[in-house]
Amino acid sequence: MTETSNSIAAIRGQFLDFTDVIDSPSELEKMLRHFEDGLLLLRNGHIEWFGAWEEGKSKIPENCSIQHYPDKLIVPGFVDTHIHYPQAEIVGAYGEQLLEWLDNYAFPAEKQYKDKEYAAKMADFFIDQLLRNGTTTAMVFCTVHPESVEALFSAAEKRSMRIIAGKVMMDRNAPDYLLDTPESSYNESKKLIEKWHKRGRLLYAITPRFAPTSTAEQLEMAGKLKSEFPDTYVQTHLSENHDEVEWVKELFPEQENYLDVYHHHGLTGSRSIFAHCIHLEEKEWDCLHKTDSAIAFCPTSNLFLGSGLFKLDHAWDKRVKVGMATDIGGGTSFNMLQTSGEAYKVMQLQKQKFSAYEAFYLATLGGAKTLSLDHLIGNFNIGKEADFVVLDPVATTLQEKRLEKSKNVADSLFSLIILGDDRSIFHTWVNAERVYKREKNE
Ligand code: GUN
Ligand code: ZN
User: Which domain CATH number covers 253?
Assistant: First the structure.
């Protein structure tokens, strides 16, 4: 684990964040905080002071080193609200929509994670990918094998990262080699919760894969776990693809709609995150709102798997929390800038606006709110955990040219989400320690 006891650091540069959570994009500008020349003081993994350099420079303790980032932009660490670590190796698998893609690519890849050593190697690879893309918090699917969860939490703990993850529960409609049972999934999940939930910065998510791969008996066990450990999370998939939605209707004819399958088993709530939510009925939107459940918006995945266009405007109208998500490996990039750029295109296709401020909000404080972690991460408020990313706005010659024409901060940020990628990530800091440094430019 990274040593942070009584360590202090001072960071100087241009900063941007949002001071509070919002209910509508119209409130974004009010909450925007931008210092051209700012100072962030860190102590013991937390933010001790944040403000303008001129105001704060006298507060820097003697002997404290100052890390100065001229010409960079420092924002809170990105929050990825839905991602599968065992699917990193199958990103960009050709030619299928969801159900065929699962059978042909995802399930065979996940088989390998029974092997502890393989899982450990891939967990390290996965965490490295997050950090080289500026993502400091993620909500992660492992596989059905407890070994895969052990490997991920161990890799995250080494870097003091805030990670929410869980063992997939899946007792039907998948290859035999990936199936558990209601009892074994309950017992294994419980053991993992007792070992990992709230250990350092780690949190556990009860993880039924999606309604088609669990029997009602297994969903009942998932609900039982949630009632026994109420401050754990729930993560699953909801209404991603038309064939999937039809299948759920056949499998659970007694439930009114897809979300009702989860709601009936006690799996909705303020720490429940549902990935995709593209084809929801109005009643499902109402249930998400009433139960304070949240959505993970996965634009690259929704485009790549041809699933459909997420109605972000409707989520705002219905006051349902939304976070950005990569959904690797249905999604095609670990990078939140690229993910935001694709979100813009998803909104364009629906004739809706999506500003760079909205993108940065959803990727930081909005994501934190989605995960009920906004009291701990998501902006530079004093007392929060010191996770942030130093962006290079001119990582390529094309960006350099484009920025010469930039009119204001919003325009510069917008060009960053359209042209940015992992080259834009200069340094990543987790828990007040620099954990990633870009080695070379374009
Ligand atoms: N629905 C059930 N499992 C999955 C998965 O692994 N990826 C995506 N995108 N959707 C799913
Ligand atoms: Zn997913």
Answer: 3.20.20.140
| CA-nearest residue, atom 8 of ligand 1 | 330
Nearest to 312 by CA among 25, 19, 20, 30: 25
Q: Find the domain containing 397 and state its range.
A: 8-77+378-437
pTM: 0.98
Is 209's C-beta closer than 6 angstroms to any atom of ligand 1? yes
Within this chain, do residues 49 and 83 fall inside the same structural domain, yes or no? no
One domain for residues 215 and 282: yes
Calculate how far, in angstroms, residue 267's C-alpha sits from the geometric centre of ligand 2.
17
Q: Is 349 inside any structural domain?
A: no
Within 317-365, strands assigned E span: 321-324
* Element at 364 (helix H, strand E): none
Q: Are residues 116 and 198 in the same domain?
A: yes
What is d(CA 368, CA 395) in angstroms, rounded to the nearest whole number? 27
Instruction: Work out the end-to-end distance of the chain between its first and last CA atoms, rounded to an integer number of angstroms.
Output: 32
Based on the structure, what is the number of domains in the chain? 2
Question: For residue 301, which atom of ligand 1 is closest to its CA?
Answer: 9
The atom of ligand 1 lying closest to the CA of 307 is 9
Report d(CA 187, CA 407) in Å as an integer. Answer: 57
Q: For ligand 1, is residue 110 a contact (CB within 6 Å)?
A: no
Cβ of 240 less than 6 Å from ligand 1:
yes
pLDDT tens-digit readout, 357-410? 999 999 999 999 999 999 999 999 999 999 999 999 999 999 999 999 998 999
Residues paired with 414 in a beta bridge: none
Q: Which ligand sits closest to the CA of 99?
A: 1
**pLDDT tens column, 215-245:** 999 999 999 999 999 999 999 999 999 999 9
Structural domain contains residue 426: yes
CATH number of the domain encompassing residue 395: 2.30.40.10
Length of the chain: 442
d(CA 209, ligand 1 centre) in Å:
7
